[in-house]
Amino acid sequence: MSTPSTILVGSIGRTCWVKVDGRGTFQNSPGVKEFVKRMIQRGHRDFVIDLGGCELMDSTFMGTLAGVALRLREIGQGGLRVVNANDRNSSLLENLGLDHLFSVEEGTEVAPKSLLHADPVGAGGAEEAKSDVLAAHEALIAAAPENAVKFRDVVDYLKQELAQGTNTDD
């Protein structure tokens, strides 16, 4: 049985930290995305994702990280670093070509515990969740075009679901 997932966040100077304990999944991706969005709006440009306590990541979580890196590249400032990833998570990031989009660093760099806190984000609705998952998978494809084959079915399905959701006359 896996441990409950926890996302802790904090900032010091222009650097923001996201510490993942448990699993990085579609369930906690929206919170990470919203935290990063708020921090970018406040002028932060450097993000460190600490995966030291992360058992595994799903494609939505990795796509969310890709989306952050692509957004920073679009802004033209800052960057994203992943630290303390276990072998499995490093391999997942490498297999999706994300290690070319942001750095995956070995080592034990950690944020001071006093800096980190929970960042509660209210859950959105089903349509918002589908939209977030779609955006994450599109970011994976934008990061490495060879990922299109891996995620084509997911992207097509979510686009159909979202189109049906907007075409209902209740």
- Please trace the helix and strand order, writing H or E for each element: EEHEHEHEEHH
Which percent range describes the beta-strand content?
15-25%
**DSSP helix count?**
5
Number-wise, the strands total 6
CATH class: Alpha Beta
CATH superfamily: STAS domain
Query: Into which percent range does the helicity of residues fall?
Result: 40-55%
How many strands, what sense, and barrel or not for the largest sheet? 6 strands, mixed
Tally of structural domains:
1
Q: The CATH topology, please?
A: Transcription Regulator spoIIAA
Second rung of CATH, namely the architecture: 2-Layer Sandwich
* Major sheet strand order: 5-4-3-2-1-6
Tell me the structural class: alpha/beta
Ends distance: 41 Å
Q: Residue-averaged pLDDT, rounded?
A: 89
Could you name the ranges where pLDDT drops below 50 across 5 or more consecutive residues?
A: none
Describe this structure in words.
The protein is α/β, with parallel strands linked by helices and 170 residues long. It has one domain (6-166): STAS domain (Transcription Regulator spoIIAA, 2-Layer Sandwich), CATH 3.30.750. It is built from 5 helices and 6 strands, in the order E-E-H-E-H-E-H-E-E-H-H. It is globular. The mean pLDDT is 89.
Defining traits:
Transcription Regulator spoIIAA; 5 helices; 6 strands; single chain; 6-stranded mixed sheet; globular; 170 residues; alpha/beta; 45% helix
